Amino acid sequence: MSLVVLTSASGSPGVTTTALALALTWRRPCLLVEADPTGGSAIAAGYLRGSIVPPEAMIELALAQQDGRNLLDTLAQVSLELPGSVIRFVPGTRSHEQARSLVGLWEPLAAALRSLEDTGQDVVVDAGRLGLFGSPEPLIEAADLALLVIRTDLVALSAARSWTETLRERFDSAGARSSLGVLLVSEGEPFGPREVSRVLSLPVMATVAWDPEHAAVLSHGAQPPRPRPWQRLAGRSGWEDSPLLRSIRAADSAITGTIRAARARLDAAQGGRR
After folding, report:
1. CA triplet 158, 164, 244: central angle to 5 degrees?
2. Nearest to residue 63, comparing CAs of 125, 117, 128, 109?
């Protein structure tokens, strides 16, 4: 149904952790792609605690594209299954020096990822920080929904403001304004969705709770905290019932609802032109 891309303007607002959480809670088959050109698979090193040596997935994809091989076949070969889930992920580059080799990959890869919709598979992409050399901008612009992940303090908003102007111009020129939005991490610290939307002139699609204790499970492979007494009495898991996962599930619903509504509007507009 969708290609969802997460990116950031500055700092470390939690793009990788949020992308991983979204993929793990997604309601349909999902492929998670690490397209951050910074280098090093944060998922392999953090969530998987270095238990695997990730393949040179992005380099293999770049070579396949250069050789004229089918990118979908290569995606199937280089993607890995996340332990304990049905989610597959494509690890990022091992070094930032490899970013130069990926510049020509992003546009054809965007087309390949979008075509996975025909197989009933959705895609969540961690695009890393905007403005880096080798940034996967074609993936961002091809997304059904591109989300700028930010915190809600003045420093984060200041950094995001200039980038949102650039992103709006790109999406406007492509006629895809509805595909761009904001995902807030730590709502109300100190600003909320209404203030952020007004400052950035973009809709806030969802919010993610500030929950470092449970976020560490995804970012560093930490053990889930033990459930609190009231959770045990209610038969609830502390992890499944955490503020983080509750907010991620709500974000899943908001994201899929936004994409469905945008597609319905597009179908109606196309029908009216026939």
Report:
1. 75
2. 109
C-alpha dist (Å) from residue 114 to 36, 86, 119, 124, 170: 18, 20, 10, 11, 19
pLDDT band with cut points at 50, 70 and 90 for residue 166: confident
Lowest mean pLDDT among 173-177, 184-188, 207-211: 173-177
Q: Provide the β-strand partners of residue 122.
A: 30
CA 261 to chain centre: 20
Nearest to 261 by CA among 174, 194, 178: 178
**Lowest-confidence range among 56-70, 87-101, 162-176?**
162-176
The C-alpha angle 117, 119, 122, rounded to 5 degrees, equals: 45
| pLDDT score of 179 | 85
- Can you tell me whether residue 53 is helix, strand or coil? coil
Say if CB 138 and CB 125 are below 8 A apart: no
Q: Which two tokens stand for residue 252?
A: 């899943």
- Those residues whose C-beta lies under 8 Å from the C-beta of residue 206, and which sit 6 or more positions away, are 147, 183, 184, 247, 250, 251, 254, 255
Number of C-beta neighbours around residue 155 at 10 A: 10
